Automatic annotation (TrEMBL):
SUPFAM superfamilies: DinB/YfiT-like putative metalloenzymes
Domain of life: Bacteria
Sequence ranges assigned to domain DinB-like in this UniProt record: 46-168
Protein name (Swiss-Prot/TrEMBL): DinB family protein
Gene3D superfamilies xrefs: dinb family like domain
Coiled-coil segments: none
InterPro entries in the cross-refs: DinB-like, DinB/YfiT-like
Amino acid sequence: MTHKTRRPTQSDLSLEAHWNYVNRIEGECIMKVLADQLYWFCELGSCLSAELIDRVHSPYTWTVRQVVEHCVDAERIFGDRMLRIAAGDETNLPCWDENAYADARFGLGNVGHLISELGHLRQANLVLLGRIVPAAWDRVGTVDSHPITPRGIAWLAAAHVHHHFEIIEKRCDISPQRGPM
């Protein structure tokens, strides 16, 4: 593990809600955590039947397909934010309306394609994180007027998927392998 991929500190994340998610993630190197989750993507996708993906499981309001699509959208947005902040973009980046994205229902196709897209986006984000200089990991930007670093966003991306995939497992009563053995 290098300094740049270490667990976040208070200078990386400012919102308590983010810490609630990130503190549930095990590991010390975000590159390993993000890469290991690729295995979980594939395993989860192979456990989801057509019957499960378009059902709304109370008390939730989204289908499993919409949750996976939400994870795809979020991964894309996390990548954009990491890039912009690492590059020194001082724009206060806006929050995003996840419900508007879910309501757009772009992902009406095969859920396997959504899982594949999520994997490609995660791989692209890993390549991005691998090429930014160590100092850029500590660069502070703002999202919705809250300070955050690329490191904080990377840990948040892992925590976000972890949160939603755990809910999918519970909703669908499945137990896919979460990482390489």
